Amino acid sequence: GAVVSQHPSWVICKSGTSVKIECRSLDFQATTMFWYRQFPKQSLMLMATSNEGSKATYEQGVEKDKFLINHASLTLSTLTVTSAHPEDSSFYICSARDRGVTGANVLTFGAGSRLTVL
Amino acid sequence: SQQGEEDPQALSIQEGENATMNCSYKTSINNLQWYRQNSGRGLVHLILIRSNEREKHSGRLRVTLDTSKKSSSLLITASRAADTASYFCASDSSYKLIFGSGTRLLVRP
Q1: Measured distance CA(A59)–CA(A34) in Å, rounded
Q2: Per-residue pLDDT tens over the stretch B38-86
Q3: N or C: which terminus of chain A has fewer CB atoms within 10 Å of its end residue's CB?
Q4: Contacts of B30 in chain A (CB under 8 A)
């Protein structure tokens, strides 16, 4: 089945530094990847839709200069949290849609990355 | 708010019992999906029901959809301790998945 690899699974950084999270589709090509943020015991909030070769589409209220998304290839999307602050601490999850599957929008999720900003 | 609502927020049952979770969403949909999340992990797709379907089965899972009420339910029959997880509905509209608030299910052995 489709597999999405997300790295790192956890990261601790100092306030003011930038952190990059990678999301790779291992056995399929993903024209579209989605980035979600999840607070403890809460639901997933869609941050942005990442399209291969074009700019990401951000949801309302998400700062595009704060959360930089790059989707340079059909198998890789990255999320960079710039100048991270403690309030950016969260669980970030990526997901991908298989371009080879038409019809319903069924997503394959990465295992998530837990970011802690000190 | 982006999210739909789910109830109950938390559910504790004995192994072997059935678990029912309800979900409401806000917009018109192409389909509605249910996902499962083990603690601190990513989500796993469980089942999808299209907007023109009313009920769907998959193993021990039964999903219903009422588009007039913008609601869905997930029934897990004969629950097992391994079913302990959080369950989220996700409404698919314009090729974006918007997740509900989730139900935390605890199945006691």
Answers
A1: 11
A2: 988 889 999 999 999 999 999 999 999 999 999 999 999 999 999 999 9
A3: N
A4: 104-105
Does A43 contact B102 at a Cβ distance shorter than 8 Å? yes
A113 in B contact zone (CB under 8 Å)? no
Q: Which residues contact B75 (CB under 8 A, 6 or more apart)?
A: B18, B19, B20, B61, B62, B63, B64
pLDDT in tens, A90-101: 999 999 987 666
Chain B contact for A48 (CB, 8 A cutoff)? no
Q: Which of A:17-36 have CB within 8 Å of B?
A: 32, 34, 36
Token digits for B81? 């301790």
Centroid of chain to Cα A40: 17
* Chain A, chain B: beta-carbon pairs less than 8 Å apart: 64
